[in-house]
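so ive been stuck on this for like two days lol. basically i have the seq below and the ligand is zinc ion, smiles is in there too. i just want the complex predicted, nothing fancy, no docking runs or whatever. if the output looks off dont worry ill sanity check it later, just need somthing to start from for the group meeting slides
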Amino acid sequence: MAPSTRKRPRPSSPGPVDADVTLTNEPSKFNRHPDLWYDDGNVIIATKTQACKVYRGLLSRESPVLNSLFETDVDEKRRTYEGTPVYEVTDSDDDIAAVLKYVCGMERNHKDVATLTFEATLAYFRLGTKYEITRLREEAISRLEMCYPSTLDSFDCPRNPRPITHTIGQDSEVSLLALQNYATLHQLLPAALYACCTLTTTKLISGIEFAFDFMEPPPASKLADFWAKVYNGRARLEESRVDDTLCFLDGAVSNNCERPACEKTIQSSFRQDRALSRPNPNALENVGPTIKKNSGAKPCKSCVTYWISRHVEGRQRVWDKLRDIFDIPEPAAGGDVAPADVS
Ligand SMILES: [Zn+2]
């Protein structure tokens, strides 16, 4: 396996914020963030290597966690830098910068920021959760939902431009993230795990390797759950591709069929098409164009329409089965999902 070339900083361990935010010792060592240093700011948020001078009121308004920290943590011994109190956090430079840019209004009209990087989206989710910045967290979830939709129509018509840039291994990263945050993100799993099933195992392993560069490695049981879902899912999808997606290959013709040759078209054209006949987990592939293209034996229009409609219905059946295929329980009405094996 090729070594990872995309090293990313690993975020802090999840835990109570009180324990994560501590007095700083040597503020003079910090580098000022080039975009996040307001001379009239009144609070400094510092990582190990970088400092941002921003506005306490803005942070307090967005984050009850930070608000509570500012109000209760009035340690007289708190270090200051040029008179401004310094709060040190254990989050990564990039995560904090992404979040502060949002909070300080530099990406206020974030709907206009057509495409967000995957890393920034994850920072929104992680820190939005940690600091209870609801809008930030919802922004991340909504972008992820657009990339891993819950309807076949949305899956077929992805948003353009993409809400999040697509990176190598992202599908496995999102799957693991959703397995670890099941109650909030389970709705991403059908499309994300489906995408994983269409990738080679080598690519998946690389993706997970990337994920561990910046995500807390999941417990072994969660990782085993991921692989079980992918391997079982692949086998189920290969079956479903034959039974549902390609159900029109069974030789049936339209009730209004006008030509005796139609039945032979199935035998001679479609069944000899290697792309259609080899085992393939890509059960949501749209082979409508192939049906039209392979109709060289001149089947009647009625049959072509019939085969395409059966193919369309078959794809929908595959989509509707995804939760079952990946063993993802439907959310309980009016409550969070907390199945014993995934919570
Ligand atoms: Zn026909």
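Confidence is low (pLDDT under 50) at residues 1-27, 335-343. The first helix runs from residue 17 to 20.
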